Amino acid sequence: MRIFVTGGTGFIGRHVVKVLKDRGDTLLVLSRQPMADVNFVPGDLSDIANWKGEAERFQPDAAIHLAWEGLPNYDARTSVRNLNYGLNLITMLAEIGCKSVICTGSCWEYGQQSGKVSEDTAVKPHNAFTAAKNALHWVGREIADEHGMNFTWTRLFYVYGSGQRKSSLIPYIIDSVKTGKKPELKTPLARNDFIYVEDVAGAISAIVKKLPEYAVYNIGSGSSTSVRQIVETVCDKFGFPYDSSEPNNLTGSPAVDFWADISRIKSDTSWQPEAGIKEGIQKTIESYLNSKG
Fold first, then answer.
1. How far is it, in rounded angstroms, from Cα 188 to Cα 84?
2. What are 189-234's pLDDT values in tens digits?
3. 132 phi and psi, to 5 degrees?
4. pTM for this one?
5. What are the pLDDT digits (tens) for 247-292?
6. Does 283 reside within a domain?
7. Which residues are within 8 A (CB) of 4 and not within 5 positions of it... i.e. 6 or more apart?
């Protein structure tokens, strides 16, 4: 299959590119920087007109839109800019005859939830980022429909693993424990659906292979894990003493506990996550140590 990818050099994108390449798909990746061993077109989403011709000559069967500039900046200016980039991209893909596009959203679109969350749960955009993601979903789908192009929206839960920003929760915990410091946590009792990045790449690969006419898929582990459990697991891996009597969530901090219903993607594509939280953290630690030499 011929697949065009944006965000292919990012945290999730580099894993997606590897899975697709290993599977034997023919790729064209939009990138500001040269890429080794992968066909790429130089540029970014702000200058589509400059590389549209190359994308058209590539004749993609499908496109995976992973790019979202500026993270972890979630302000209105950044969100609107990325929304416009995404809509322009979907329009261009439809014009050049691409058959299907897969876009990535966020579990944050659901707002403050509790328990298992399915794709049919009403979205509750609560800031510029989630509003922009929701708009990209709905307007992007309309653009695709008008051009006879398949459209898939995915909602990623709490992705972690090799290559994640060091300011993110799990890299921060690993870095703290590795250097002998106790992680400072505001919400140790909060429970989230942590999903290993290689499993996310496998899910996106499975969706591309299926190419549904229209679908929304949660991509998560299907269960929740507390932040405290993450700390305990990392401490255990490094042999670092952990004080189980540490205080609970700070006053006023939300008691979050929700996780993805992944029955739809499992039924439609036969995908399921392979790495449990302990295995995923072990792989993340090994990657961290290797990157430190």
1. 37
2. 889 999 999 999 999 999 999 888 899 999 999 999 999 999 999 9
3. -65, -40
4. 0.94
5. 565 545 556 799 999 999 999 999 999 999 999 999 999 998 887 6
6. no
7. 27, 28, 29, 30, 55, 58, 60, 62, 63, 64, 93, 98
Query: Tell me, what amino acid is at 113?
Result: Q
- pLDDT reported for residue 253: 52
List, in order, residues 6 or more apart from 170 with CB less than 8 Å away. Answer: 160, 164, 194, 230, 234, 281, 284
* Of 72, 291, 69, the residue nearest 169 (C-alpha): 72
Structure tokens at 41: 């077109």
**Domain count along the chain:** 1
Structural domain of residue 67, as residue ranges? 2-160+194-221+261-274
Token pair of 177, please?
């424990």
List the CATH number of the domain containing 95.
3.40.50.720
